[in-house]
Write a structure and sequence with these properties.
The protein is mostly beta strands and about 120 residues long. The protein has one helix and seven strands. A hairpin with a 2-residue loop joins strand 5 and strand 6. The longest helix is centred in the middle third of the chain and has 9 residues.
């Protein structure tokens, strides 16, 4: 004699997973605008022709939004980075923007960005 098999349904997920930067810690997500993945950094370094020089027009450390003016096309590009790229970034500062892999270089430091 076998006992009846009762099916236990899965519990529904009630909350979305949040990045640790939402709680004041370092980014735990590699989503656009969060932590820079090692492979993303290496791909950007391996394709130097995709870098574009730019000047910072505005940088809001509170929201992470940075407005850039590119030299090549004289276009305004708005990017967002939760990883702290806008902290201490002053208007007129030179930066480099990697168009294919969405990386922002400020000096020797690189950030994962999301275009806005």
């Amino acid at each position: 004699m076998t006992s009846p098999h009762t099916h236990i349904p899965p519990l529904p997920v009630r909350e979305r997973a949040a990045c640790m930067c939402d709680h004041g810690d370092r980014c735990s997500s590699y989503a656009p605008g969060h932590a820079l993945h090692l492979i993303q950094s290496r791909l950007a370094s391996a394709t130097p022709s995709d870098w574009a020089d730019a000047i910072v027009e505005t940088a809001d450390a509170e929201t992470g939004v940075i407005a850039l003016r590119t030299f090549q096309d004289d276009d305004t590009v708005t990017v967002w980075s939760r990883a702290g790229a806008a902290i201490g970034l002053a208007p007129g500062a030179p930066v480099a923007l990697h168009g294919r892999y969405d990386v922002l270089a400020i000096g020797n430091v690189r950030y994962n960005i999301q275009r806005g």
